C-alpha cells in the first residue's frame, strides 16, 4: 500500500511554446491535496502560462496535466474544472456591470439549479466569509478599493466550495497592510474549508506567511520544490539571489 500523498495536480513533461519561443520544456510538478503551494519565477518564466494550462485555457504542446487524477484533455474535464476549481485572476476579473452580490451569484446560476432565494443567501454567505461588510454586496466593482475587489473575487472563487483554488498574484497592487490581511484571509479560509491552493506570487511576505512549499520556475521547468526555509539554504544561483536579496532578508525577518 502506497504512502504517497494524494495529488490535486500532477504535471509531467509539460511543454509550452509561442512560435520559436520555448516557455516550458520538461516541466514536472506535483501539488499535494490540502497544501498551499507557492510558485515563483522571474519575469517571463511562464508562471501565468502554467496557470492557464492547468485551467485548460491553453492546450499544451506536449506532456500531461492531471487534476484529481483526470487528464484535463479528457472528455468532461472542462466541466469538472468549472465545478471543482475556483480562480482568482490578478485583476480579480469581476463583471463590471454586476454588483458584488450578482458577481458571486454567477457560479451558482451557471453550475447549479437552485431557487433564487437560496442562491442569494449562499452568495451572501460567501461574501461574508471573504471578510466584506454586508453593504458591499450592493456595490459595483468600480466603487471598491483594491483590497475589496480581491475579496469579492475570492468570494466568487469559493462560491461552489471548490477543492482547489488557483490564485494569480493575489496581493499585487495592495499596500503592505492590505496584503498581510489578504494573506491571513487565505490561510483562514484554507484551514476552515480545506481546499488546496496553487498560488503564483512574487510577494516574499506571502511565501513566508502562508505557503507550505514553494516551487521555483526557471530554465523552462521547475528546478526546486521545498519549504521556504529549505530554499533559503539552496546553492542554486537564482534561488540564492531571490531569497538572499535585501527584500528576501527583510521578509524573513518579518516572518
Short description:
The protein has 255 residues and is α/β, with parallel strands linked by helices. 39% of the residues lie in helices and 25% in strands.
The helix/strand order is: EEEHEEHEHHHEHEHEEHHH
CATH first level: which class? Alpha Beta
* Count of alpha/pi helices: 10
Strand content: 25-35%
Low-confidence stretches: none
First and last CA, distance: 38 Å
Structure keywords:
Rossmann fold, four-stranded antiparallel β-sheet, 255 residues, alpha/beta, 10 helices, six-stranded mixed β-sheet, single chain
If you had to describe this structure to a student in words, what would you say it looks like?
The protein is α/β, with parallel strands linked by helices. The protein has a single domain (7-254), classed as Rossmann fold (3-Layer(aba) Sandwich), CATH 3.40.50.300. The chain is built from ten helices and ten strands. The protein has helices at 47-54, 77-84, 100-111, 116-129, 146-157, 176-193, 204-210, 228-231, 237-243, 246-254, and strands at 7-18, 21-32, 36-41, 62-67, 70-71, 85-88, 164-168, 196-200, 213-218, 221-226. The radius of gyration is 18 Å and the shape is globular. The N and C termini lie far apart (38 Å). The relative contact order is 0.16.
Amino acid at each position: 500500500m502506497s504512502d504517497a500523498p494524494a495529488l490535486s495536480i500532477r504535471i509531467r513533461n509539460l511543454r509550452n511554446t509561442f512560435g520559436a519561443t520555448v516557455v516550458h520544456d520538461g516541466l514536472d510538478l506535483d501539488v499535494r491535496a490540502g497544501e498551499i503551494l507557492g510558485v515563483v519565477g522571474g519575469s517571463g518564466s511562464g508562471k501565468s502560462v502554467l496557470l492557464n494550462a492547468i485551467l485548460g485555457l491553453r492546450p499544451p504542446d506536449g506532456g500531461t496535466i492531471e487534476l484529481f487524477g483526470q487528464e484535463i484533455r479528457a472528455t468532461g474535464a472542462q466541466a469538472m474544472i468549472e465545478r471543482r476549481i475556483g480562480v482568482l485572476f490578478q485583476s480579480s476579473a469581476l463583471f463590471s456591470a454586476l454588483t458584488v452580490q450578482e458577481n458571486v451569484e454567477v457560479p451558482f446560476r451557471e453550475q447549479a439549479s437552485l431557487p433564487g432565494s437560496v442562491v442569494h443567501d449562499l452568495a451572501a454567505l460567501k461574501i461574508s466569509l471573504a471578510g466584506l461588510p454586508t453593504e458591499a454586496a450592493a456595490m459595483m466593482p468600480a466603487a471598491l478599493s483594491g483590497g475589496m475587489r480581491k475579496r469579492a473575487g475570492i468570494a466568487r472563487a469559493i462560491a461552489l466550495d471548490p477543492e482547489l483554488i488557483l490564485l494569480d498574484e493575489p496581493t499585487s497592487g495592495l499596500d503592505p497592510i492590505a496584503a498581510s490581511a489578504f494573506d491571513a484571509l487565505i490561510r483562514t479560509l484554507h484551514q476552515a474549508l480545506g481546499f488546496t491552493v496553487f498560488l503564483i506570487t512574487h510577494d516574499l511576505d506571502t511565501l513566508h506567511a502562508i505557503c507550505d512549499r514553494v516551487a521555483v520556475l526557471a530554465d523552462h521547468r521547475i528546478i526546486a520544490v521545498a519549504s521556504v526555509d529549505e530554499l533559503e539554504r539552496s546553492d542554486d544561483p537564482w534561488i540564492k539571489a531571490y531569497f538572499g536579496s535585501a527584500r528576501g532578508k527583510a521578509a524573513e525577518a518579518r516572518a
